Amino acid sequence: MPKTAQTFQAPKGFHDILPQDQKYWERLRKVVKTLAAEYGFKRIDPPIAEDSGLFLKTLGLTSDVVEKQTFTFKTKGGDSLTLRPEGTAGVMRAYIEHGLSVLPQPLKLYYFGPMFRYEQPQAGRYRQFYQFGFEVIGEADPVIDAQLLKVFYGVYSELGIKGLTAQINSIGCKVCRPQYRSLLKDYYRNKVGKLCADCRRRFKENPLRLLDCKDEKCQLFKNQAPHAVDHLCQECHDHFKSVLEFLDELELPYALNPFLVRGLDYYTKTVFEIWSDSAQTQAAALGAGGRFDDFIEVLGGKSTPAVGAAGGAERTINLMKAQEIKVPSAGVRPKVFLIQLGDAAKKKSLVLFEEFRKAGLAPAEAFSKQSIKAQLRIADKMGAQISLILGQKEVMDGNIILREMTSGVQEIIPLEKILSEVKKRLKK
Ligand code: AMP
Question: The whole model's pTM is what?
Answer without folding.
Answer: 0.90
